[in-house]
Amino acid sequence: MCSITYFIGYDLLYITIIPPNTFKGISLMLKQIFLWGAGALVLIQAIQVDIPEIPKKIDKSKEIVMPEDIATLIKTSCYDCHSYETKMPWYGNVAPMSWEVRTHIKEGRDWLNFQEWGNYDEEKKQKIYKGIAKTINLRMPMPMYLDMHEEVDLTGAQRKQIKLWAKSQMKKKK
After folding, report:
1. Domain annotation covers residue 174
2. Do 9 and 80 fall within a single domain?
């Protein structure tokens, strides 16, 4: 037994023959898909990317020293990934988004941690200054981060200011 449904749209007449119980099967299938998806989402929460623990005591004497105007810009736009002062957003604890966020923080701290500056040798510091001068206009802060944190975006003038500061810290090769 079938029912006939008429639907008039865009000046056309559609005739659809719908067997009874069709929607029961679809709704059961949608429920199963939803439950499997929800179950998978719950299970993947157990998989977390570890970022190094914040030391119990941070030695402030090892933190980078820079002019106040540069420090303000860098602390606002860079410290979430490049220091121990990470302000973890809510989605930084929910997989799979947390995997991306935590990986970026881990990699950011591995490459540069402004609060560990005193532990770097001069060669590494020069490499970092060069990296800052090179990436500040294109990739830092990361575009993905800026999508969620527009307030930390730097203006062109601020980027230029940081770049000039980084270049001024670079030593000329002999």
Report:
1. no
2. no
Pairing outcome for strands 3-9 and 12-18? antiparallel
pLDDT tens-place string over residues 76-131: 888 888 998 888 878 777 888 888 888 888 888 889 999 999 999 999 999 999 99
In a domain, 53, yes or no: no
> What's the pLDDT at 11?
47
64 within some domain:
yes
- pTM of this prediction? 0.69
The span from the CA of 111 to the CA of 91, in Å, is 23
* Of the listed ranges 52-56, 99-103, 165-169, the one predicted with least confidence: 52-56
Flag whether 90 is in a domain: yes
Q: How many structural domains are present in the chain?
A: 2
Q: Which of 136, 114, 111 is nearest to 58 (CA)?
A: 114
CA distance 42 to 26: 24
Give the contacts of 13 (CB within 8 A, at least 6 positions apart).
Answer: 6, 7
Confidence of residue 154 (pLDDT cuts 50, 70, 90): confident
Cβ atoms of 33 and 82 within 8 Å: the answer is no
Of residues 48 and 121, more confidence is placed in 121
- By the 10 Å C-beta count (0-12 exposed, 13-18 middle, 19+ buried), 152 is classed as middle
Show the domain range for 118: 60-169
